[in-house]
Each structure stands twice: as structure tokens, then as C-alpha cells.
Amino acid sequence: MIGQLTRNERQGALLILIALAILGLAMAAVGRDDPLGGQGALVMVAALAGLFGVISRYYAPEPGPDRVSRYYDEPSKVGIIIAMGWVVFGLFIGDWVAWLLVDPNLTFHAAWSSFGRIRPVHTTSVIFGFGGNALIATSFYVMQRTSRARLPDQLSPLFVLFGYNLFCVLAVAGYMMGITQSKEYAEPEWYADIWLVVVWITYFVIYLRTLARRKEKHIYVANWYYLAFILVVAVLHIVNNLAVPVSFGHARSYSLFSGVQDAMTEWWYGHNAVAFFLTSGFLGMLYYYLPKVAGRPIFSYRMSIINFWGITFFYMWAGSHHLHYTALPQWVQTLGMTFSLMLLVPSWASAGNALLTLNGAWHKVRDDATLRFMMVAAVFYGLATFEGSFMAIRPVNSLSHYTDWTIGHVHAGALGWVAMITFGSIYASVPWLWKRDGMFSPRLVEVHFWLAVAGTVIYVMAMWNSGIVQGLMWRTYNDSGTLAYSFVDSVVAMHPYYIARAIGGLMFLLGSLVGCYNIWLTIRTAPQVAGRTASEFPDAAPIGAPVLQPGE
Amino acid sequence: MFDHDTLVWVSKSFGLFYLIALSLIVVAYAYWPSNRKTFDRAARAILIDEDKPWE
Amino acid sequence: MFGLHYRLETKAMGLVLAIIGVSSIGGLVEIAPLFTIHQTVEEAPGMRLYTPLEIAGRNIYMREGCYACHSQMIRTLRDEVERYGPYSLAVESKYDHPMLWGSKRTGPDLARIGGKYSDEWHVRHLNNPRDVVPESIMPAYDFLSRTELRKDDLGEHLAALRKVGVPYTDEMIANASSDAYGQAAPDTPYAEGVVKRYGAATNVASFDGKSGELTEMDALVAYLQIVGRLTDAAYKPVASAE
Fold it and tell me: Is residue B14 part of a domain?
């Protein structure tokens, strides 16, 4: 990795790491009476480890000037490995959290392992650790190929990758130490938030600089989605995390917003994190890897553009459906519900566009689990977006909100859509990146596929059942007109579903372990190939050949 | 500053017009005849696999 | 390395601006009017402020992620009002930075938990929930009773809250640490100070049943006992959610 940096870039890396180490030391010093001190120490240790890595390879030969005739794939390779690490960790914690609801004594009486502290560890690890790293790794890959241009330099992509992971580690370690600002899916405190802004702006600048160097005149639509992901997440992150720290020596800060404004800001953020992190970014992935693996151009390029603006526009209105029947003004609730329903149009059009692209490649879907991962992802995307719009309808929401149904819905999206499209893209990328003929064992990809599908289905079914049972029990009246069940009755009724859910989650975890093993074997042992040519994609018609678009 | 009712009124009316205008612009762009060649080319171009940047 | 010496041609920048423009409209339209909402929502005169001990307890509630399983927002639905109490009003959380409305009820809603159970019940429940509710799946928080509360920096916490709009006075900020101690130590001169500054309705009690050391258990129970009781606006018949 360091060997690919020029001497100047190695010096730049040293400067950044020294500055970071000093920053960590300062945090540890001023925050010595506070959990902030521990976070500072963590920053310092990370920076010192980085320094050690750079110094030990400082005098390694520099890359030659011919490097510019190749794509720079080191950050993508490292990013994929890190993403697989996060998914195993995040799913393990997630399954532990699931078993905690079966037996609350599994915290072992420690503070750091109680449900409320490790739940955000799970959500942050899978969403930001796994999802974020996968997006960074694939976006670097895709933007170079679609622009036919190399990344502008070698250092800044690595800064983004490792800087982003430092943020994730600070966040996850912080929750277990008791640091959180308690905003759902935005729990990290002010100093980590500021650090993420620095990393994110660098990411954005890399994207713009690569686009500016592009040799293709038109910007391929996958980049639009990635760009929307980067831009809008930045806006959401900055606005939602506006806060006043107690002092520079405290990890704790107080949100600038309170009450109803804070609730609307939080769910404007929360829902659009789903939109622009978990949808837009991964649609970018889909629009590159699915046509590529299927060997067919996207069914309707126009539809992908229309859907892009539809998603970018509609999602921003939908957040208030998280606050139905609350103290939020009703017109805002109605607006949120209306736009949530309208969202179904671009969402289903996207899912349909993906599935129609596979028309003519169904034999590949049958034979290749990599492509099947992507197909199932598109199906779950369609399912989850339908369910999402349905649950945004006020009367439906009165039953589903606050129950496990929401958890089931989120996991239909997270496991079925986000994780499946990512695994598909990773299985496609690994042989391309490491120049191998294919994955070490296609059979293990099959095993992973079926474990993932079965795990997701069990999980989602269990949560549908528990959620609806819960929602109905809370509102059931007996003949005398009083509530039929106490709250704890509903807790008892959940027990079998919670066991089923934990088993579904375990299967999904096992699948990703199989995936790690297979990726490791592919990198370590499979032979090199000479180089790939366009002839491997026989279905691809030459450029310029007329293709009928729908709507003509 | 702004009256709450004014703000709500602007939100409710402006939002609707904006939605219609935006839909028209997007559909016009997507179906503009001269863009067709660009889109067809873009959709197929990613399938060409040279694995090195263009000079 | 961050230099923008490349010509950022208009197409990419156009796309960037279009994305920002298109995406920001929805948020602006829905959020902006909420900042003038005080013109329409009824004020709650005489609304109390969280005491320093209650703020400390609220921070523990957040630290332990209680909001992940307990909402603090009763919706305007018949069964919720009958199960938990009057539905929540916007004004009730106007001092909540951030709000803790929550999104999931693995456990029951807590918007009206204040005053519903005794201090002793809360302490037993937090030490081991299954001692009082055998079927409960809540984790045990027995370590709170063993952990001393940090109170030397509570003044700074109140000062930060004042910066974001909570009307704490200089006197409250200056006496934050001793007020936190006093609220859990009835029969001491410090207790009188809390009542003087935060009103006669302030809960002064030896929350965890032990005098002397101020523990995190004291703070959390003090907070739980004030949840939903900063104002009685929700109990007034004219209250409207709109």
C-alpha cells in the first residue's frame, strides 16, 4: 500500500499522521477526567500505528511514472477487506443483541455490553462500517472505469478510507464507553462528527477531480447516484449534528435543536440516511455491477435518470412519516405520507429496470450465484420500498409504529437489498481487482447465497409476526371496554419470534463468514489470468448499435 | 421574521408547483431526441473492458 | 493534495448544484415552518427546568441507550391514551436537547412515568428488573448503584444548555454541583437551595435510599420521576395537538 505512494505522498502521510497523533494526545490531555480522554488515546494509537506502517516502508522503491497508465485500485482492495471485517463484527454484535432479547442475562452484568450500548454498535458497524466501506471501495472502482481516468493522486483516497474507518472505530468504541448523543443513526459525538466532515469533503473533492479528468464526455448514471450519496449525506450529517459541546474537554454535547424541531430534523436525517446512504449509493453500485456481470446494458438508461431525480426529490419529504400521530403538526405528517406513497414510483421503476436488464441473461442468474445475489437484491428492494410506502400510510403506521414490524422492514432492506447487492458486487470485484479467473469456490458463493436468503426470510417473517401481534395486542379491548393485555403480556408473546429472529440472524452471519473465507482463498491461492477482454461479454452489442428504449 | 402561517402557506403551494415543474424538466431531458445517442452509448460503454485509463 | 487546480468543468458542477437544489427543497419546506411554530403552539407558563441532578440522570438515560427500547411520545390514539396517559404535546419537550421521543417500544412508553412508581420501586427495578416484573427482558443496571455520579462539571452542562436556549440563570449554573447533591440529600442546607432555585415542586429525596454518596442511580431515578412532569399542560382539557 505504502509502496504505491510517491516520496512526496509518503511525506504527506507522515505529516497527516503526526498531526493526528498530536491531536489525539491533546484530546487525551484535556479530556483526562472524561471519556473523551480514552477516545483521544485511541486516536493517538491509531495515528502511531499508521506512522509505524509508513516509516517501515518509507524507503521502499517509488512507483514508476507508468502508474498513470493503470487504474489505482489499492483503496478498493483494502476497502473491500475492511468492509468484510466490519460485516462479520457488526452481524456478530447484531446477533448477540438479538439473543439479549431472548435472555437478558447475556450481558454478563457488564455496563458496556448492555442492550442500549451495543445496539448502536451493531447499527453503526453494519451501516457505516460495512455499507460505508463497501460504498467507498466500489465508488473508487466505478468512478475510474466509467470516467476512463485514474484517481487524481494516491494519498487522498487512502486518507478517505482510513479516516472514515477511524470515525467508525471512534463511534463504536465510544458507545461501549458510554459516549453517545442519542440521535438514532447519528450517535457519534461532536469531535467524531467534525472529523467525518473533513474526511467527507476530501472524498467529495476526489470525486470531482476524477470527474474533471474523465475521458468519457457523458457522466455515467452510477456516478450520479454515488455523487448524490456523498453530497446529501454531507448536508444531512452537518445539519443534524449541530450541537454545543459542554467544553473542549468533554465528549458530551447538547443538540442545537429541541423537542419537535429536533424530532423533525432527526427523522429528516434518519430517513434520508436510508435514502442517500442505503439507497442512492447502493443503486450506484447496482447500475454498474449488475449490467457488467449480466453482460447487458441497463434496460432503460432514461428510466434510470428519471428515477434518479425522483428519488433525490421525493425522499427528502418523507421523513415525517416517522412521526405520525405525534406532536408534529398534522400537515407535515400528511406531506410525509403523500411523498412516501409517491416514492413507490421511482423505487419500483428502479427495481423493474434492474430485473428487466436480466432479461436474456436468466441462464446466468441460474448458474451464477453472484448475479443471483444482485437479482434477489433488486427483488428485496422492490419489496422493502413497497412495504415502506405502505407503512407510511397513517392508519397502517398506527399499528406498525413502535413495533418489531419496523425492525423487520429495516432488515428486509438492510439484509435483502443492501447486503445482497454488496455481496454480489464484492464477489464480482474481487476477481477483477486481484486479477483472478473467478472466485476460488463458486460453490461457497452458492452456500453463502442460500444462507443469506434463508436467514433474511426467517428474520423478516419472524419480525412481521411479532410486530403485528404486538401492535394488535396493544390495541385489543375486551368486552367491558378496557384494554385486554398488559404491556408485559406482549413481551411474553414475543419470545418465540425473538428466538426465530436470532436464528435467522445467525444464518446470515454464518453466510458472511463463508464469504470471508472464500475471498481470502481467492486472494491467496487462485492463479492469475492474463487479462480480460470485451469478448468475455458476448451479449454486449457494439457501441452505437441502435437499441429500442421503452416508451418508443 | 416570517409569520408562521405565511411560511406554511408558501410550503404548501410552492412545493406543489415545484414538483410539477421538476417532473417536466426531468422527463424533457430524458426524452430530448438529441440525448438519445449519448444515453445509448453510455449504457453500452461500461461493458467495454480495457482496464486501463484512456490516454 | 486538496488543491482544486483542475478545471472543474460546468457539467459536473451543474450536476452537483442540481442535486443540492433538488434535494434540499423537501427538508426546507417541512423543517423551516417548525421554527416559527411557537407562534401557534400554546405556551406552558410555569414550565419547570430540569435540575442538575435530573440533567445528569437524563444523560445516563441517553448513555445507556434507554431510548432504543422506550419511547417518550404518546400518540393521539385511544389505546395509547388509556394505557399511558394524556397524549404528548410539543411544548413538553421544548427543553429536551435532544428529544427522546424514541422509535421503538420493546418496553413500554415512559412519557408519563414520572410519579407513577415509588423511588424504591425504580431502584429495585433498575438493579434487577426481574425482581419486580418476572417476565421482563430489560437488562439489569445494578452497576449504577455502585458508580459515583460525576457532579463537578454539572455547571458546564447547564451553561451549554443555556447556549442552546434553556433559560438557566447564572445562580443555577454556579450552584449546579451542590444542587445536585442537595436534591438527593433532604434534611441538609443544600436541599433548600435546590427548592429555592427550581421551585417548591422539585422532588427532593434520597432516591437510592442511601444517604451520603451521590450515585448514578440517584440521578437516573430523579430523572425518571420528572419525565412528563415539567408542566401539566397535557392534563388540561383545551390542549390540542394541532
Answer: no
Q: Do A178 and C64 touch (CB under 8 A)?
A: yes
Residue range A379-413, pLDDT digits in tens: 999 999 999 999 999 999 999 999 999 999 999 99
Q: Where are the domains of chain C?
A: 2-40, 52-231
Phi, psi of A6 (to 5 degrees): -75, 170
**Contacts C103 to A, Cβ<8 Å:** 184, 322, 401-402, 406
Pair A263, A326: CB distance under 8 Å: yes
Q: Is residue B12 part of a domain?
A: no
B44 in a domain, yes or no?
yes
Candidates A231, A224, A47; CA nearest to A146 is: A224
Looking at the complex, report in whole angstroms how far the Cα of residue C19 sits from the nearest Cα belonging to chain B: 12
Mean pLDDT score, C2-28:
72
pLDDT tens-digit readout, C189-206:
899 999 999 999 999 999
Q: Going by CATH, does the domain composed of A72-395 fall within 1.20.210.10?
A: yes
**Taking the model in full, what pTM does it have?**
0.93
- Measured between beta carbons, which residues in chain B are less than 8 angstroms from residue A149? 53-54
Q: At A254, is the secondary structure helix, strand, or coil?
A: strand
Check residues C2 and C36 and name the one with the higher pLDDT: C36
Q: At what angle do helices B35-45 and B4-31 cross, to 10 degrees?
A: 80
**pLDDT for residue C23:** 83
The answer to the question of residue B31 being in a domain is yes
Residue spans of chain A under pLDDT 50:
531-552
List all residues 6 or more positions away from A275 whose beta carbon is below 8 Å from its beta carbon: A232, A311, A315, A316, A318
Total of domains in chain B: 1
Contact with chain A for residue C237, Cβ under 8 A: no
Q: Which chains touch A (3 or more CB pairs under 8 A)?
A: B, C
> Is the Cβ of C14 closer than 8 Å to some Cβ of chain B?
no
We find that the CATH architecture of domain C52-231 is: Orthogonal Bundle (1.10)
